[in-house]
Amino acid sequence: MGGIEDGFIQQIEAAGDVAAVVAACRWLEARGGTGPFDRQRLQARLPELLHRHLAGVCEHPGFRLWLDVYFGRRPAAFRSPLQQPSYLYYPALEPRAWFDAGSMPELAPLEARIPALREELLAVLADAGGFSPYVSAEASRSPTWAALADRPDWSALHLLRRGQWNRALMARLPLTDAFLAEAPLAQCPPHAPECFVSRLRPGVELPPHHGLSNIKLTVHLPVDLPPSGCSITVAGETRCWEYGRFLAFDDSFLHSAANLSGHERTVLIFDVWHPRLADPERRALAHAVAVLDEVQTTMARIDGKASAS
């Protein structure tokens, strides 16, 4: 292989953290268009290279199982037909759709704060702008999301998105800010966590869909609810929001929501780690997601530059 491929491989093999992987990717991108670079040969080496790097991060059997499944060394199969995450499936976790506060020991002590948070959010949202369609215009090509693409029927006000906090908004939400600082947010950038206020207009139904991964749970904190006619269905079981209580579920299961009332439904939504993941698994998964995203994004940028030249 040429010197560029060798140099990148050596840097990944020596990398001890995500920052070192990022530096290697920046090095590769800077040199990929300036010297002898066999992209196809490097791409063929990447699965073995990344598997070896990530295997050195954690020895937990659940993480090692996921790693082998992700790289095709073991067969992949969902343990429930209703659970089909679109990005990352962690097979060691029991397929369970719903979670109550008692089964989430890190989150349960925070439930007592919900009434105060709700009052703070109601006061700030009374004059807060910044809501935008949750489903992007690009989704108009999707048979699932075309009817909601770029429409305010389902809108969001983002507190945290792709690692960036809305600092101006959080300055007006000190109780919410302190609460989220203590919540076990699924720190798996750039895909999680996400925190936003979600509004669903009267008469709107969200189609059944699957989330990104089963390593995190989606938690709803009710802010403003219709008296009736509003529900969410996960894995075939329908529930309603209740003031003062979290509603938590694994969104890798098929789920949908409906607001058949005459009043908007408003909830705060945030991602937390699956409670059955041990700390070593969480750290290893955060590392793995960051590394895989960085390498894949870098290769895509190199391809884009090659196509443009």
From TrEMBL:
<keyword id="KW-0223">Dioxygenase</keyword>
<comment type="similarity">
    <text>Belongs to the aspartyl/asparaginyl beta-hydroxylase family.</text>
</comment>
<protein>
    <recommendedName>
        <fullName>Aspartyl/asparaginy/proline hydroxylase domain-containing protein</fullName>
    </recommendedName>
</protein>
<dbReference type="GO" id="GO:0016020">
    <property type="term" value="C:membrane"/>
</dbReference>
<dbReference type="Pfam" id="PF05118">
    <property type="entry name" value="Asp_Arg_Hydrox"/>
</dbReference>
<dbReference type="InterPro" id="IPR027443">
    <property type="entry name" value="IPNS-like_sf"/>
</dbReference>
<feature type="domain" description="Aspartyl/asparaginy/proline hydroxylase">
    <location>
        <begin position="112"/>
        <end position="275"/>
    </location>
</feature>
<keyword id="KW-0560">Oxidoreductase</keyword>
<dbReference type="GO" id="GO:0051213">
    <property type="term" value="F:dioxygenase activity"/>
</dbReference>
<dbReference type="InterPro" id="IPR051821">
    <property type="entry name" value="Asp/Asn_beta-hydroxylase"/>
</dbReference>
<dbReference type="InterPro" id="IPR007803">
    <property type="entry name" value="Asp/Arg/Pro-Hydrxlase"/>
</dbReference>
